[in-house]
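Hi V.,

Quick status before I head out on leave. The structure for the redesign project is tokenized and pasted below; the design run finished overnight.
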């Protein structure tokens, strides 16, 4: 059994909307999740973003939010420690070394932010909580200690104008870039392509 898509009828657009259909205004702003939702399934977009119907949770969502919040708090502690040493102009006897948050601090954030909802059963919950979570945190911590980042912004909201609309979102982390070994000569970076 095979389907010849060339012979299939073309989908019909339902535009303009049929008489009596509810019309929804075009939102003033869009996010990655709303655009993604619309591209996947316009009806899902309608339910989630226009009608604001709650969507059911799931193990991946609960676990993902737990890990996200854990890393966010860990990085905020690190960011605060970096900033506190930068403000110390007079070396008041400090070694200048910044205390990296410990694995115990990371695990405490994990336990404190654990979301206990939406797991199918106790076995699945234990798998996420006891095996997957600690494995992810161990991997994160090893990479973190090997090359500690310098986060400039954490959980930073943004808004980009696109004609009369806006694209909005949140960036989890923006790190300070290390100094370039080949800086641009003065003035080169400010010219637009084709000028000069």
């Amino acid at each position: 059994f095979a389907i010849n898509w060339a012979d299939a009828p073309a989908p019909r657009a339902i535009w303009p909307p049929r008489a009596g259909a509810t019309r929804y205004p075009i939102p003033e702003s869009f996010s990655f999740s709303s655009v993604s939702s619309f591209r996947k399934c316009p009806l899902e977009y309608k339910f989630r973003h226009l009608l604001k119907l709650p969507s059911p949770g799931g193990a991946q969502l609960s676990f993902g939010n737990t890990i996200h919040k854990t890393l966010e708090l860990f990085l905020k502690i690190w960011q605060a420690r970096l900033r506190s040493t930068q403000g110390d102009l007079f070396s008041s006897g400090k070694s200048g070394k910044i205390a990296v948050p410990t694995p115990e601090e990371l695990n405490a954030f994990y336990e404190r932010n654990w979301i206990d909802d939406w797991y199918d059963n106790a076995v699945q919950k234990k798998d996420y909580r006891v095996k997957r979570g600690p494995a992810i945190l161990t991997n994160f911590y090893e990479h973190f200690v090997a090359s500690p980042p310098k986060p400039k912004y954490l959980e930073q909201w943004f808004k980009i104008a696109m004609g009369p609309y806006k694209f909005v979102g949140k960036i989890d982390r923006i790190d300070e870039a290390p100094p370039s070994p080949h800086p641009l000569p003065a003035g080169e970076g400010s010219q637009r392509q084709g000028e000069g």
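Above is the designed sequence. Confidence is low (pLDDT under 50) at residues 192-196.

G. will cover questions while I'm gone.

Best,
W.
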